[in-house]
Amino acid sequence: MRDLFNNEKLILIIFLFSFIGFWFVLPDYAINTITLSFCNGLVVLGLLLLMRLGLVSFGHGMYYCLGGYAVAMTYNFLQIKEVFFLVAFAILTGFIVSFLLGFFVRRFRGIFFAMLNLALSMILFGIIVKSVSLGSTDGFGIKDLTYLSYTIEDQKRLNIFSYILIVVFTVLMMLFVMNFLRSPSGKMLEAIRENEIRSAYLGISINKQIHKVYIFSSTLAALGGGLMVILIGHITPEDTAYWTKSGEFVFVAILSGSLNVFAPLIGSLFFEFIRSYALFYFPNTWQMIIGIVLILGILYLPEGIGSIFNKRKK
Amino acid sequence: MLLEVKNLNKKFGSVTAANNINFQMNENEIIGVIGANGAGKTTFCNIITGYLKADSGEILYQGADITKLNVQEIKNIGIHRSFQIPQVFENLGVLENIIITELVSKNKQNTLFEDAYTKQNYENAIKLLEKFSLDVDTFKDKVVKELPQGERKVLDILIAIIGKPKVILLDEPTSGISTDEKNSIMNNILRAIKELNISVLFIEHDMEIVEKFSERVIAFYNGEIIADDKPSKVFNQNNVKKFIIGGS
């Protein structure tokens, strides 16, 4: 069974077709949860990249927020309704902002890196909340969208197009990350995490590598945010840039582990379903259920949910 | 002249770690560096490799000034090093340590569209282990943290040699290695290094090893070079006997 899971590309194809197939068999609430999990899972996939470097960001909600606002503001201010353009704007925004901020954050490690990102995220939150032109606490909404010129009305926001769009984008990003982690460039992450001194003496440009991964990771988070707005049709700063959202991403990242690219998506799905059911059955104590799940995860799956499928070769 | 150090000075607060050091190294030389703890040997090594910046002075490599270069730039021009405490990738396999090093030496740190751990790369890593006369079966399936200190040390040196440097600085290559193994390990290391025409500067506390394997010895005391000659002459100098051999 483990050998089967070692063939990641085959699993990814099965993963893609299974989730496309789920559209036809699962009820709407489950499809909605899956789709939202995938949007959030992209942020966790980005965190996986940082974790491979030995870094954690407590502020990736910032890029989730930026991607979402890029979509919502492009829609509202530029009247662009084509989904692929909107997604491109989300990606571009994440790329540009992380490229610029990367020069600053790449010099920090450990808790300083994590808290610095949290601080940046809270600055963005403060700016949006205090700016009426940015929608303040109400945020922005979007309505009808077009998929390659085919218009989908606002009421049918969760439709086969948006679902397949999100599943395909997610799988494509998983494939990118998978190939990256297997490449020489991806192996530099392990080297830096294991021993920065030796890595420097080998000639690895540590800061450049961290910067590159930070951009990759943040762009994934921005894409997740952009897709989330396409799915939900609305964005507020509190649901994206506030520290609790970033904390949620870190929670899922720890729950998932960083062993393979499936872990963030499975972890995100697991989290969303647990939260949905916990909210339904224990509306006043659902956070306690989430906490217990994390404790059990740490105790029995210290390397995360991904370790169910494969063990890192030792 | 391969490497030349001119009037090098370095202080840490009131402590002088390098005091007007002048030093030359020719191609294919094997130089032993001796001195008591705190004499300035590792600081000297750290300054040459760019880890520390000198307060004043110059370092010339093949005639070019490299004083202001950083660690990566110095590595890229051909000066590599190993460490007193082995600096390896502890949670990765021995072969993976070698493969990553080879990938960096081939300037593939930004290569995206190929696999890193290919069969070919594993075979190359095994060949390198054989070149160092290391027991391939012992090493190939091990994670580095499972290795004894001595074997980690050898791996650290092996990693430093990948990429064919012109100069290699070995910081206490035999520390943590049993007395019985020291000679054979040094033989293996220096044979492999000689085949590659690499000049060696090795810091060592074991005087027998220094006498046996170095062609020239420099002795440090209080941040100064107090002797620089053939081993037999250096070991007979009174100040070396008094401050280093007698006191070490």
Topology:
The complex is a heterodimer of chains A (314) and B (248).
Chain A: H1 2-6, H2 8-25, H3 28-52, H4 61-78, H5 83-105, H6 110-130, E1 140-141, E2 145-147, E3 150-152, H7 160-182, H8 184-194, H9 196-202, H10 206-232, E4 234-235, H11 243-256, H12 262-281, H13 286-300, H14 306-309
Antiparallel strand pairs in A: 1-4, 2-3
Chain B: E1 3-12, E2 15-25, E3 30-35, H1 41-48, E4 56-61, E5 64-65, H2 71-77, E6 79-81, H3 94-105, H4 119-131, H5 136-139, H6 149-161, E7 167-171, H7 179-195, E8 199-203, H8 207-213, E9 216-221, E10 224-229, H9 231-236, H10 238-245
Parallel strand pairs in B: 3-8, 3-9, 6-7, 7-8
Antiparallel strand pairs in B: 1-2, 1-4, 4-5, 9-10
Assess the beta-strand content of chain B as a share of residues. 15-25%
Largest sheet of chain B: 6 strands, mixed
Count of alpha/pi helices of chain A: 14
Main sheet overview of chain A? 2 strands, antiparallel
Please report the first level of CATH classification, the CATH class of the largest domain in chain B: Alpha Beta
Let me know the number of strands of chain B.
10
Low-confidence runs of at least 5 consecutive residues of chain B: none
Q: How much helicity do the residues of chain A have?
A: over 70%
Number of domains of chain A: 1
Q: Which protein chains make the most extensive interface, counting residues with beta carbons within 8 Å of the other chain's beta carbons?
A: A-B, 25 and 36 residues
Strand order of the largest sheet of chain B: 6-7-8-3-9-10
Report the mean per-residue pLDDT of chain B as an integer: 89
Rg of chain B computed from alpha carbons, rounded to a whole number of angstroms? 18 Å
Q: What is the H/E order of chain B?
A: EEEHEEHEHHHHEHEHEEHH
CATH level 3 topology of the largest domain in chain B: Rossmann fold
Quaternary state, please? heterodimer
* Rg over CA atoms of chain A: 19 Å
- Stretches of chain A where pLDDT falls below 50 for ≥5 residues? none
